[in-house]
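Risk register update: the risk of archive-format incompatibility is retired. Evidence:
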Amino acid sequence: MASRVDGAPECEGELVNGEIALVLDLRSYRLSAVKKTAYRFADRFTAVLGSPENDRLSLSLRFKANVAESAAREVTRQFFQELLDQELRELVAAETNAIRTLILAHAFSNVDLIKRGE
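Archived output:
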């Protein structure tokens, strides 16, 4: 799949030799979100990540032999839905990290974590 002029990937890629090639803009998606999404789809394709370069990440989705192009495109569409979900989870985690740390510190502030001899 080629990138559009604005850097966003197109979801109209061709299945060539059992693979759909993508280029992701790392200003839109964190690498960790891409990896988590790829892992979630490991039963449907193998994701081969390239090295990040200039805010771009090449990504190849390698499907099992004899997969239909329509099926590969549908799974690719689902991949992008999950990628957005994972990216939003990463964003929320980053934005709420300080308050989560404060809540955990408060929760354990009155707990003796070391069992002392009686």
